[in-house]
Amino acid sequence: MIPTTSMKQKARQFLYILFPILITQIALSAITFFDTNMSGKFGTDDLAGVAIGTSLWIPIQTGLSGILMGITPLVSHLMGSRKESDVAYQVTQGIWLSLLVSLLVLAAGTFALSPVLHFMNLEPQVHDIAFRFLCAISVGIIPLFGYTVIRSCIDALGQTRISMFITLIALPVNVGLNYLLIFGKFGFPRLGGVGAGVASAITYWVIFGISLMFVYRSEPFRSLRLFRSFHFMSLRSFKELLKIGVPIGFSIFFETAVFSAVTLLMSRFDTITIAAHQAAINFASTLYMIPLSICMSLTILVGFENGAGRLKDARQYGIMGIGTAAVLSLATALVLLFAGSHVAGLYSNEPEVISLIRHFLIYAIFFQISDAIATPTQGVLRGYKDVNPAFIICFLAYWIIGLPTGYVLATYTSLAAYGYWVGLITGLAIGAILLLSRLVKVQRRYAHNKPDTA
């Protein structure tokens, strides 16, 4: 990355960073999309089983990956302040931490998975598919978290096209394995929805291996001597990474877990409703990759400018990113409004399921507007290393306001399952307002060089 002076230069650099991240995130989301989509084509029970499995897996995966994404602002600041020699050590500590996190997840899953699924009182076939799907995908936890650290470093150096290239290789691998393992083609076992879990686990190992090859052999990573020296675990480095990463991880966890909680609460409805809800959430999550990609770009750009002491430039990037997300949210809302039936048909061949999906997608329109403000704003705050208030705001908005509101509406009004979506919309809107207010406060503090008292 290079310093910029004019808004035209900033727009060019913003797009240079953003576009590969967007392609990468869409491709990563497409892995989940094809898992859900192809499982739905196999059968409604498989769609519901993968939906339940995904609802448990996604918040754990994204929340803990968020902790490891603390590497991004740390490396951005090191590069902005010209401390390149410290990058290799920091990334190695991130890999150590990713290994510890992976082992903790595997240990917790061994003891907690069966009780959680039994608590949900699922239909036997759906329960079995969800259990075996999660067991299969768990084989890929270690490489997935390791890749998260490496990718965070790659992106922090502005080399987002490399992340894009790696992910674009992974997508056809995943889709091809899904085809072979879900439907049992060319002599492979016919595993149904469970095959999607196996395919994803193999894909995680592939992208981890490719990313290691890139950072070890290619520039500019080779000059940084990544993984060329052995470094023992450092509790002090863990503390520095966790200080930034834990609030980021919790913020992501609170947002993703509330959607998963809704899916789990919907287990009291029939299998068709569960399947339709998850299909709509899956497509809305794919559209969410737009504000999420802008969020990640802003963390890199604002972190770089802030590390170099160019506060005006950091503020201008924030305005540009949030404005871009708001405009694009209108486009995604139009997609949901006018192409809902076509989208629903991607997930199922059954008319009743398609009709339910289409109705859920109408509510998803309102998600886009709030996400367009809240998510990029969090990216800007991470660039300022202001991460603690954001996760408190997310917890308050999503879990104290959004989820209880949805439960009341779904249980005591005629909205039924749609009530949960109204609750989610309420929580997201409140979260967006509070996060934007926090950003204004942080930027004013930086402008007056006042210490943080939050």
Description:
This protein is mainly α. The protein is built from 16 helices and no strands. It has helices at 7-42, 44-68, 71-80, 87-119, 124-137, 141-156, 160-183, 193-217, 221-224, 235-265, 271-307, 311-338, 340-345, 351-383, 388-412, 418-447. Helix 1 runs parallel beside helix 7, helix 4 (87-119) packs across helix 6 and helix 10 (235-265) runs parallel beside helix 15 (388-412). Mean pLDDT is 84; it is low at 450-454.
Helix tally equals: 16
Overall 3D form? globular
CA-to-CA gap between the ends?
31 Å
- Strand fraction equals under 5%
| Poorly predicted runs of 5 or more residues | 450-454
Radius of gyration: 21 Å
Order of helices and strands: HHHHHHHHHHHHHHHH
Structural class: mainly alpha
Number of strands: 0
Give the integer mean of the pLDDT values.
84
Tell me roughly what share of residues is in helical segments. over 70%
Jot down its keywords.
single chain, 454 residues, mainly alpha, 83% helix, globular
